[in-house]
Design a protein that fits this description.
It is a single chain. By secondary structure, the chain is of the alpha/beta class. The chain has two domains: 128 residues, D-Maltodextrin-Binding Protein, domain 2, CATH 3.40.190.10; 92 residues, Periplasmic binding protein-like II (D-Maltodextrin-Binding Protein, domain 2), CATH 3.40.190.10. The chain contains ten helices and eleven strands. The strands form two sheets. It has an eight-stranded mixed sheet with strand order 5-1-6-11-7-10-8-9, with helices on both faces. The chain has a three-stranded antiparallel sheet with strand order 2-3-4. Helix 6 links the parallel strand 8 and strand 9. The chain is globular, with a radius of gyration of 21 Å. The termini are far apart. 36% of the residues are buried. The structure holds arginine.
């Protein structure tokens, strides 16, 4: 009886261990479908057009996984929950404009970057352009982003206001609840094109970053397969075409 109990306990422990294990490539291939996580509120990178999730990195991801011979399933949650969900194996890969940072790399393994960009200052006032101009000002950023981390380091900033989405941070600027908004330079570029009358002005680039997808820490087999397929699509012009469609320029890292 005691023996049986010990065996049962061991079996349970094994199951629990399996449940927290990231799915390596072989297992994903066996199932045929990769589970992808994104946000869906960050145009033009990942957003909903009606019910359809689309955008630059959504199309990149779909092309890459197709090249890998896989079907895919999307899960969308708040930006802040994406890396946590990855660590909990709720999805195999996250693609939501994460900048590669040392901090994030402690908990996740990044793939090759699918674009190079940076955080830019946006304001309604032409006199707010540089990091120095943010002294004494209130700045809006999305929670959990690299923008938050960098704005916190700017000396003299009066207040950094966090918003659950980048769009909410932008609205705060639009309704003058803040003096500036820090976002991605391509997000800002599109905003200015779409709403030229809103009066948004872009200032200085606060910092630059490489943006990549992420898999669970040390799920190297999956990262390698993704990178191989991604590089093949860069070489055959597929990624360049998707980039031209959204940005009229090549946003990949050179
Ligand atoms: N690039 C920034 C970062 O690394 C912002 C990403 C925001 N992504 C999103 N889907 N809202 O934190």
């Amino acid at each position: 009886m005691k023996m049986l109990k010990t065996l049962a306990a061991a079996a349970l422990a094994l199951c629990a261990a399996a449940a927290v294990q990231a799915r390596p490539l072989a297992e994903i291939e066996k199932s045929g479908t990769i589970v992808l996580g994104s946000e869906g509120q960050y145009a033009p990178f990942n957003f909903f057009k009606g019910k359809e999730l689309t955008g630059y990195e959504i199309e990149v991801a779909e092309a890459v996984v197709k090249k890998m011979g896989l079907k895919h399933e999307w899960k969308t949650v708040g930006f802040d929950a994406l890396l946590t969900g990855l660590a909990q194996d709720r999805w195999d890969l996250v693609i939501a404009s994460h900048g590669i940072t040392e901090e994030r790399a402690k908990a996740a393994t990044f793939t090759d970057p699918h674009y190079c960009s940076g955080g830019i200052i946006v304001s309604l006032k032409p006199e707010i352009r540089t990091a120095a101009d943010l002294a004494g000002k209130t700045v809006a950023v999305q929670t959990g982003t690299s923008y938050l981390e960098h704005v916190k380091e700017v000396p003299g900033v009066k207040d950094v206001k966090n918003f659950p989405t980048d769009e909410a941070a932008r609205s705060a600027l639009g309704s003058k609840r803040v003096d500036a908004w820090v976002t991605d330079r391509f997000v800002a570029k599109e905003m200015l094109q779409k709403a030229p009358k809103a009066g948004f002005k872009t200032g200085e680039l606060l910092f630059v970053e490489k943006i990549a997808a992420a898999v669970k820490k040390d799920n190297q087999s999956l990262a390698d397969a993704w990178n191989k397929a991604f590089q093949a699509l860069v070489a055959d012009g597929t990624i360049g075409k998707i980039s031209q469609k959204y940005f009229q320029e090549d946003v990949t890292c050179k």
